[in-house]
TrEMBL record, chain A:
<dbReference type="Pfam" id="PF00528">
    <property type="entry name" value="BPD_transp_1"/>
</dbReference>
<dbReference type="InterPro" id="IPR045621">
    <property type="entry name" value="BPD_transp_1_N"/>
</dbReference>
<dbReference type="InterPro" id="IPR000515">
    <property type="entry name" value="MetI-like"/>
</dbReference>
<feature type="transmembrane region" description="Helical">
    <location>
        <begin position="12"/>
        <end position="32"/>
    </location>
</feature>
<keyword id="KW-0472">Membrane</keyword>
<protein>
    <submittedName>
        <fullName>ABC transporter permease</fullName>
    </submittedName>
</protein>
<keyword id="KW-1003">Cell membrane</keyword>
Automatic annotation (TrEMBL), chain B:
<feature type="domain" description="ABC transmembrane type-1">
    <location>
        <begin position="85"/>
        <end position="274"/>
    </location>
</feature>
<dbReference type="Pfam" id="PF00528">
    <property type="entry name" value="BPD_transp_1"/>
</dbReference>
<feature type="transmembrane region" description="Helical">
    <location>
        <begin position="151"/>
        <end position="172"/>
    </location>
</feature>
<feature type="transmembrane region" description="Helical">
    <location>
        <begin position="193"/>
        <end position="220"/>
    </location>
</feature>
<keyword id="KW-1133">Transmembrane helix</keyword>
<comment type="similarity">
    <text>Belongs to the binding-protein-dependent transport system permease family.</text>
</comment>
<keyword id="KW-0812">Transmembrane</keyword>
TrEMBL record, chain C:
<feature type="signal peptide">
    <location>
        <begin position="1"/>
        <end position="27"/>
    </location>
</feature>
<dbReference type="Pfam" id="PF00496">
    <property type="entry name" value="SBP_bac_5"/>
</dbReference>
<keyword id="KW-0732">Signal</keyword>
<dbReference type="InterPro" id="IPR000914">
    <property type="entry name" value="SBP_5_dom"/>
</dbReference>
<dbReference type="InterPro" id="IPR030678">
    <property type="entry name" value="Peptide/Ni-bd"/>
</dbReference>
<protein>
    <recommendedName>
        <fullName>Solute-binding protein family 5 domain-containing protein</fullName>
    </recommendedName>
</protein>
<dbReference type="GO" id="GO:0043190">
    <property type="term" value="C:ATP-binding cassette (ABC) transporter complex"/>
</dbReference>
């Protein structure tokens, strides 16, 4: 019962956040100079043509009315139509979401598989003189190499040396499952480097945080073997920050890895948003941001819920915030 | 950078121990020092800083006259790199300074006031935090026009939420302690408490988070420039040079090698210094299992 | 030059609106340095080997941006060069452009010009829309009248048409166009995709919405379109020339980023791709199995000097002329465009009858070394075209060399468009942009009359002498007399110096020549590097 009330409260807070984001994206998008009608119609259009299109798109009304109309529809699940294609925005995004989701899940999977063991190793060796230098520098490098540098190197390498994966032709998993997975692999790898390094660093800190607990010392005192201690006591208790980070990373990846999608010509949500920005396709910008935010809010509620289940001591359910 | 340097300056004893015990940190500090010196040299020594003038042919390979070669418009890459380091560091440092001021003020006020003020600050933070960062940056850049100001504003917007949250958390811990409560009861004015007690207690957090924010700043500047919304040509920044280097990786690899290496080293050094600062300023005694 | 074109694409695409077509950089009448390959026939940058038995398909092509038009897929309203190429795969016009900008038959098998205001077109026997219905003279008359009445940009390029009539007798389908006064660019205007012949019977019956669907008489039909991602085309079995077609399926991928297209060619997953970055030539030079050719576009970059906005220093004609004289066009070509372009005057340098870039008054003016001392100039550009950014920096260096203080104001395309074309007066001092150059030297000169080209009214003023010279040149038949008339257009435009031509815009076409034998013209006026796709042969293996 308490859990339900807590979830309800968190979701309510989430709604407030979403309303804030709705306001922000709506007005920020309209602060950008260059109106949709002039961008779409181009320089050769007359003022009358621009006015007509503006009226047709409903952009001639005052901003607050427009916002009211939009938010009213959003509540019913209607995010409007794309100015460019005329199709419902949700359909357009649904076309691209599987591509981005594949990429995001692959990248996150790789990141966790690599990052968690690396982080544990770093933590265990933290006190050793010079013992952690290698892994510190590696995970430091991981978060220091920008994806546009790494991506460019990977694109060049795989396009000049035949290594079995072609860059030039991206296949969506909805068209061909196997080819889709193969062509997602390289961009996912590029994305995963930063994520893996961030995971390793968070894991290291989390594990170190657990290692100061008296019951770990007790376990050491009982003569339990180090890896058994890690498995039984440390990882479970260190998993909360890792989970939180994973959720943040997933939301970030689903929100559109704009640069990597561009480099590998992946037709995902990120590149779609970028195009929408250029064309002042407001409905698309708004919907894409709102969806990313919904993912973010839901993920954070889930993570907190999971944290409470894992370690009731950190429960925030009774707390005021 | 400035944050880290300032913190190091204030803790000479620790710095000495870092020097002796940690070669990685020493190297990181030296790299940072060199980069700062390079950016200053680019600005102060006449003749070194002219990164906007064509001095040779297009894409000349490194030579005595142009030690790092030339770019697509025949400009000396040494001059452009020096200018780029300067722009990137200045921009990032300035942005992080803004972030630190805003986040510290918001975090402390929220922690001290509690209640609905805290709630409001946290919710606004959530909004910014849940907004896809790159899109937020792009919207800002498109709204105020691509360029240094846009990059600066974007970096601040991207880094403020996390830092505010961390400062607020740290300050909340302090605000609940007895000495703050007794100061309140004895009628000390709120601003005085905030500055005297809370600010001093969260300064470690601010320095550590500021260092991390600095590495984020360099990355955001790079990403924005890569997408064409950051620093604009003919000015140079590390991000701009890297994105030009990407295109010409095959025919003029020296551009990406010079700019990319500098950028990676800069972020790496800042991160490592941040790690070391955190270990010193927020120490934990972990059990050695192995 | 940045990689970025993701954004760019869209913006460039939009920038392209009518103003645009594509790039170029090679040789031709105007003359540039690309040495002519002795094995190639004149006017070709690459020729498909007719002896190859084509392996069929699919052919994979990557292009830099997709069509994105307010009126969807309706060719009459198409303003972007890429729309012209893509729609041109499905639709046919009466005529097309061949080597050296020669007008050649397409849907019209032949035509005659009994006098200088009458054109009689005989349609291809067997021309059929992809739904199986024969193309009739009524479709031609209906389509062209629809274009004239549309008020679209291209309707203004058709000239003073008096009547378009169905003059068929018996089975032979024939159309006669009568002009009020002679208008030489008519055929070149009819050759572009906006003058495509649509199935008017189906449109008038309400069976076809041309903004949503394409139904043409050309080589291909659309199998699938994903906006900004890809197009799938299939060979149109009903095409009158279907037997000649070497490709049975065409996959067109939109790849905004230069690096993606370079990678696609290098790893062989793409057989053909275009680049507006002239350095693509050297970037592809060592790639196994890849041939890169430079196609000279009649499109050209120009500078706008705002003479309308009272806050602009360029209300002063003297200053405009000084800036015009200070600009070193060959320097711009060499440094910003990798030498893969040519300096040009108002008439695109590679078109017949064009005036030479160095023939105009400003070319022989000798401004003082500090002619612009004390001037402070703001130069507006959009941030998504690497060539434009490179050009702007060279212009900035050149003007600063003459003592001016020049700041670059780089904004995204939407903002640029608002400030240059929508704001009245235009909200800038100096700006850079580019025009499509089209297929006849007198066509683009229309844009130098802001009463016709209303989009220029925010920064350029109408001049009676220039407008009269433009109209006069368009009425003259091609030849020496017209070249002289065009020379005076160039001279007057140069003197008024409000829109100052700089250099042609390069386009590089990359061909995976071990997989594809392709024909590419060495000159192009409408950005259509796929113009000769019917001749392409894919190579097995």
């Amino acid at each position: 019962m308490q859990t339900l009330r807590w979830v309800g409260r968190r979701l309510l807070m989430g709604l407030v956040t979403l309303l804030g984001i709705a306001l922000l994206v709506f007005f920020a998008a309209r602060l950008v100079p260059g109106q949709a009608a002039s961008v779409l119609l181009g320089p050769l259009a007359t003022q009358e043509q621009r006015d007509a299109l503006t009226a047709e798109l409903g952009l001639d009304r005052d901003l607050f009315t427009q916002f009211g109309i939009w938010i009213g529809k959003v509540v019913t699940g209607d995010f409007g139509d794309s100015i460019i294609s005329g199709q419902p925005v949700l359909d357009e995004i649904a076309l691209r979401l599987p591509v981005t989701a594949t990429l995001a899940l692959m990248a996150l999977g790789i990141a966790l598989l690599v990052g968690v063991p690396l982080g544990v190793l770093q933590a265990l060796r933290a006190r050793r003189r010079g013992g952690a230098v290698g892994s510190r520098v590696i995970s430091g490098l991981g978060i220091s190499v920008p994806e546009f540098v790494l991506g460019a190197l990977v694109v060049l390498l795989f396009s000049t040396v035949p290594l079995g994966i072609t860059i030039g032709a991206f296949t969506a998993i909805s068209d061909d499952l196997w080819l889709g997975l193969v062509s997602s692999l390289l961009p996912a790898l590029v994305l995963s480097v930063f994520c893996a390094a961030a995971t390793a660093r968070t894991t290291r800190d989390a594990v170190l945080g657990v290692l100061v607990e008296p019951w770990i010392q007790a376990a050491v005192g009982r003569g339990e073997r180090p890896w058994a201690i890690v498995r039984h006591h440390v990882l479970r208790n260190a998993s909360i920050p890792i989970l939180t980070l994973a959720a943040t990373l997933l939301a970030y990846l689903l929100g559109g890895a704009v640069i990597v999608e561009g480099l590998f010509n992946v037709p995902g949500v990120g590149s779609y948003m970028l195009l929408a920005m250029d064309r002042r396709d407001y409905a698309v910008i708004q919907a894409a941001v709102m969806l990313a935010a919904v993912v973010f809010v839901v993920m954070s509620v889930l993570v907190e819920l999971a944290s409470n289940l894992i370690d009731p001591r950190v429960s925030t359910m009774g707390a005021t915030t | 950078m400035t944050g880290a340097a300032a913190a190091l300056a204030r803790t000479p004893g620790r710095l000495r121990s870092l020097r002796t015990s940690d070669p990685v940190l020493t190297i990181a500090v030296v790299i940072l020092g060199l980069l700062v010196a390079a950016s200053l040299a680019g600005r102060l020594i006449p003749g070194l800083n002219d990164g906007t003038t064509t001095v040779g042919g297009r894409f000349e390979a490194p030579s005595l006259a142009h030690p790092l070669g030339t770019d697509s418009l025949g400009r000396s890459l040494v001059a452009r790199l020096l200018e780029g380091i300067g722009t990137t560091f200045l921009l990032s440092a300035l942005a992080v300074l803004c972030t630190a001021v805003i986040a510290t003020a918001l975090g402390i006020v929220a922690a001290y006031a509690g209640g609905w003020v805290r709630e409001l600050v946290m919710r606004i933070g959530d909004v910014l935090y849940a907004f896809p960062a790159i899109l937020l940056a792009l919207l800002v850049a498109a709204a105020i026009g691509p360029g240094s100001t846009a990059a600066l504003a974007s970096i601040v917007l991207v880094t403020v939420p996390l830092m505010t949250r961390m400062v607020c958390a740290a300050a909340t811990d302090v605000a609940r302690r007895d000495f703050v409560t007794s100061a309140r009861i004895s009628g000390v004015a709120a601003p005085v408490i905030m500055v005297r007690h809370l600010l001093t207690c969260v300064s470690g957090t601010v320095v550590v988070q500021g260092t991390y924010a600095l590495s984020v700043a360099i990355l955001v500047e790079g990403g924005l420039s890569f997408l064409g919304y950051g620093v604009q040509l003919p000015a140079a920044s590390l991000g701009l040079l890297v994105s030009e280097g990407n295109v010409y990786l095959l025919t003029a690899p020296w551009i990406l090698i010079a700019a990319g290496t500098t950028m990676v080293l800069a972020i790496l050094a800042v991160t490592l210094v941040g790690d070391a600062l955190r270990d010193r300023l927020e120490p934990r005694e972990a059990v050695d299992l192995t | 030059m940045r990689t970025t074109s993701k954004i760019t694409v869209a913006a460039a695409a939009i920038a392209a609106l009518a103003l645009t077509a594509c790039t170029g950089g090679g040789a031709t009448p105007g003359g540039s340095e690309q040495p002519a390959d002795p094995n190639l026939p004149a006017g070709y940058a690459s020729v498909a080997d007719e002896s190859i038995e084509s392996a069929g398909g699919p052919l994979h092509v990557q292009v830099d941006y997709d069509t994105a038009e307010a009126q969807g897929l309706d060719p009459a309203f198409a303003e972007i060069a890429r729309s012209w190429s893509i729609m041109g795969l499905v639709y046919e016009s009466l005529v097309t452009v061949g080597p050296g900008f020669e007008i050649q038959p397409e849907l019209a098998a032949s035509w005659e010009q009994p006098d200088d205001t009458t054109y009689v077109f005989d349609l291809q026997p067997g021309a059929t829309f992809s739904n199986g219905r024969a193309v009739s003279a009524a479709d031609v008359v209906g389509s062209l009248n629809r274009l004239r009445e549309s008020g679209s940009v291209w309707s203004g390029q058709l000239g003073p048409i008096a009547e378009i009539a169905d003059t068929s007798s018996g089975d032979a389908q024939q159309v006669t166009i009568t002009l009020e006064t002679p208008f030489t660019p008519l055929l070149a205007a009819l050759a572009n995709t906006p003058a495509a012949i649509l199935p008017m019977q189906e449109i008038e019956a309400g069976e076809l919405d041309p903004t949503a669907e394409m139904l043409g008489s050309g080589a291909f039909t659309v199998a699938e379109h994903r906006q900004d991602e890809s197009w799938s085309f299939e060979a149109n079995a009903e095409w009158w020339n279907a037997e000649q077609l070497g490709i049975d399926a065409l996959e067109l991928t939109i790849a905004a980023d230069d690096q993606t297209r370079l990678a696609g060619l290098r790893d062989g997953s793409t057989q053909l791709a275009n680049f507006s970055n002239p350095d693509a030539l050297s970037l592809l030079a060592g790639a196994q199995g890849v041939t890169a050719v430079s196609q000279t576009q009649s499109d050209f970059f120009y500078a706008m000097l705002n003479s309308v906005n009272p806050d602009s220093p360029f209300v002063d004609q003297q200053l405009r002329q000084t800036v015009n004289a200070v600009l070193d066009r060959q320097g711009i070509v060499d440094l910003a465009l990798a030498g893969a372009a040519v300096p040009t005057a108002v008439t695109p340098a590679n078109l017949p009858d064009a005036c030479a870039a160095d023939s105009v008054p400003s070319a022989s003016a000798e401004p003082a070394a500090d002619a612009l001392a004390g001037e402070s100039i703001s130069l507006l550009i959009y941030n998504d075209d690497p060539s434009l950014t490179a050009l702007a920096q060279v212009v900035q260096q050149q003007l600063q060399g003459a003592g001016a203080e020049v700041t670059l104001d780089s904004v995204d395309y939407g903002t640029y468009s608002e400030r240059v074309y929508v704001a009245q007066p235009g909200d800038f001092q100096m700006a850079l942009g580019w025009f499509a150059g089209y297929g006849d030297a007198s066509m683009v000169t229309n844009w130098w009359n802001p009463e016709t080209a209303v989009f220029n009214a925010g920064f350029a003023q109408p001049h009676d002498d220039l407008s009269a010279a433009i109209a006069e040149a368009q009425a003259l038949p091609a030849g020496t007399e017209r070249a002289e008339a065009l020379q005076s257009v160039c001279d007057l435009a140069d003197t008024h110096a409000e829109m100052v031509p700089l250099a042609t815009r390069p386009q590089v076409v990359g061909i995976r020549s071990d997989q594809l034998s392709a024909s590419v013209l060495s000159d192009e006026g409408y950005g259509d590097f796929l113009r000769l796709i019917a001749e392409f042969k894919t190579i097995e293996g």
